[in-house]
Specification:
Blueprint: H1 11-34, H2 43-66, H3 75-95, H4 103-115, H5 120-141, H6 150-154, H7 157-209, E1 214-218, E2 224-227, H8 229-234, H9 250-262, E3 270-272, E4 275-286, E5 289-298, H10 299-340, H11 347-375, E6 381-385, H12 386-400, E7 408-412, E8 418-422, H13 423-440, E9 450-457, E10 460-467, H14 474-477, H15 495-505, E11 508-515, E12 519-526
Parallel strand pairs: 7-9
Antiparallel strand pairs: 1-2, 1-5, 3-4, 4-5, 6-8, 9-10, 10-12, 11-12
Helix pairs in contact: 1-2, 1-4, 2-3, 3-4, 3-5, 4-5, 4-7, 5-7, 10-11, 13-15
């Protein structure tokens, strides 16, 4: 594991520290050239000073280059740079003018700059070391002076200067340390927001490009500013932005002018390459600029969506009506039962009462199914063990369909142990399809064969419910799952529609299948693996 720890500061902030170190090297070089106070008078010390000073300048320049590279932008590197600065400048101060050396100020400035990046206790520790070093220099420079009182010590100008500089350094370190962390926190928030905006922009672009309809944005002059992939293919791939719309489609440009000048949106389909499309215009205003959004959609898709919306609205209306009908139907049913209990009735009256009660039961069944479709309770998916479930289904079928007792067979492939489905929903779907087989197969009970086959087809777990009946005509196959479609005068036309809705909310798919060898029926394809 890499033991280098990143500083937690942005690369830009770290490079600013590198620029500070380059500036520090420049100032030191200028002081060396223009100030004689920086060079010791002793020839031996002068040579030592020159070597140390040159090495320090090289170190500053190298550190500047290091901080331009992310791998060196670590807290450990900042700590090393600060300690080395303190060591180098302390030695240079010691062999020059001591407390009077201008390098004392450079040392404090370096500590304040690096202390802004370090943890506050480390920054103050460096300041404390610098204060102790200045104290040592002051004691060394005053060892030959005799002070008779503490007040005389305090009146010493060098001591006052040390205390003042130290106090300023401490305050500066604390302020810069707190400020830099607040600045970095705000920078992180801004960076995060910019990344989120960028990701949202990329996502928006992907959504636009993969849309199933054409999108064109034009400016007030009719020049194309934005298109998606659908439109690029629509125009044969030869369209570019910042070009007039009229160069690519004159009929579309004429509709655009009609909408722009007269605010009239022609709802008639537009013909393009032997196909029909709906065209819609919307105005977009931003920063005092006006743009037009042109949406182009195939008529088949638009009509399909409109039909779905109509069915949804119709379903809500039907559910509301069914709910309101349930109470009066219950009252009529109770009244018919009371009248039917009369002892003195003619045979005609008995038949009429029986017809009334049967039709009321049929109406109540329709109401219950409509309300069940409208409710669409969220399923509770669970693992249904097929062995136990099959035994329960077979027992229930033999009790409720005594005349079809030997008709039902359940085949489960080896390895097909369970399915994921809502248990109540699964029971309702299978029972509905079995009842359909007994009713619509047009086969007598002794000849009817119903098979439930659990098997894997193309890697997908499936359940196919076959029967050996007459099947469904090709004409009716396209309408099987439509609401209120039925070929039985006693049927409601909602059974298969309800089955399809239940399968969809359980993430399954159902379709009609026909096989000359096995018969015809319905196949459920489960989304979850076995």
């Amino acid at each position: 594991m890499d033991q280098r720890k990143y500083s937690g500061f942005s690369s830009t902030t770290m490079q600013i520290l590198g620029i500070f170190r380059l500036l520090l090297a420049t100032i030191l070089a200028a002081l060396y050239l223009i100030s004689k106070r920086l060079i010791p008078t002793d020839e031996g010390l002068s040579q030592t000073f020159y070597i140390i000073f040159t090495l320090y300048l090289l170190f500053l320049l190298l550190s500047y280059l290091f901080l331009k590279r992310p791998r060196f932008q670590t807290m450990q590197a900042i700590r090393i740079f600060a300690i080395v600065d303190l060591a180098y400048l302390s030695v240079l101060c010691f062999i020059t003018d001591g407390l009077d050396s201008p390098l004392i100020i450079m040392m404090l400035i370096s500590i304040m700059a690096h202390g802004a990046f370090l943890p506050i206790w480390q920054a103050l520790s460096l300041v404390a070391i610098a204060i102790l070093f200045q104290g040592y220099l002051w004691i060394d420079s005053n060892r030959y002076f005799n002070y008779y009182s503490f007040i005389e010590y305090l009146k010493n100008q060098d001591l006052i200067r040390i205390l003042t500089q130290s106090l300023i350094a401490v305050v500066a370190v604390v302020i810069t340390n707190v400020w830099l962390r607040k600045y970095e926190a705000s920078e992180k928030i801004i960076t995060q927001q910019n990344e989120e905006l960028h990701n949202a922009s990329v996502l928006h672009e992907i959504v636009i490009q993969q849309a199933n309809s054409g999108i064109i944005v034009v400016d007030h002059r009719g020049n194309i500013l934005l298109i998606n992939e659908y439109i690029r293919i629509w125009f044969g791939g030869n369209i570019v932005t910042n070009m007039p719309l009229k160069l690519y489609s004159k009929p579309l440009y004429e509709r655009y002018l009609l909408w722009k000048d007269l605010t009239f949106n022609n709802k008639k389909p537009m013909h393009h390459q032997e196909e029909e499309f709906y065209v819609d215009f919307k105005q977009i205003r931003t920063h005092n600029l006006e743009y037009t959004l042109i949406n182009i959609e195939e008529t088949d898709l638009a009509n399909q969506r409109a039909q779905q919306n109509k069915l949804a609205a119709l379903g809500q209306l039907t559910a509301a009506i069914a709910h309101e009908l349930r109470n009066p139907m219950t009252s009529v049913f109770q009244a018919a039962q009371l009248l039917n209990e009369k002892k003195e009735k003619t045979p005609m009256e008995s038949r009429l009462f029986e017809m009334i009660i049967n039709n009321i039961n049929r109406a109540n069944r329709i109401i219950s199914e409509v309300l069940m479709i409208a409710r669409k309770d969220d399923p509770t998916l669970e693992r249904i063990e097929l062995a136990t479930w099959s035994e329960e289904l077979m027992h229930e079928f033999n009790l409720t369909h005594a005349e079809f007792k030997e008709c039902l067979t359940i085949d489960i492939d080896e390895g097909f142990k369970w399915v994921y489905f809502d248990r109540n929903h699964f029971h309702q779907v299978v029972c509905n399809l079995i009842n359909n087989a007994t009713i619509h197969s047009k086969m007598p009970p002794e000849s009817l064969k119903i098979t439930l086959a659990f098997e894997q087809i193309a890697g997908n777990p499936t359940l196919t419910i076959y029967d050996n009946g007459v099947g469904v005509s090709k004409k009716n196959q396209t309408h099987l799952f439509e609401p209120f479609f039925t070929t039985d005068v006693k049927g409601t036309g909602l059974g298969l529609f309800l089955v399809k809705e239940i399968c969809e909310i359980n993430q399954a798919h159902i379709d009609y299948v026909s096989n000359s060898a096995k018969g015809s029926g319905f196949r459920l394809i489960f989304s979850s693996p076995m």
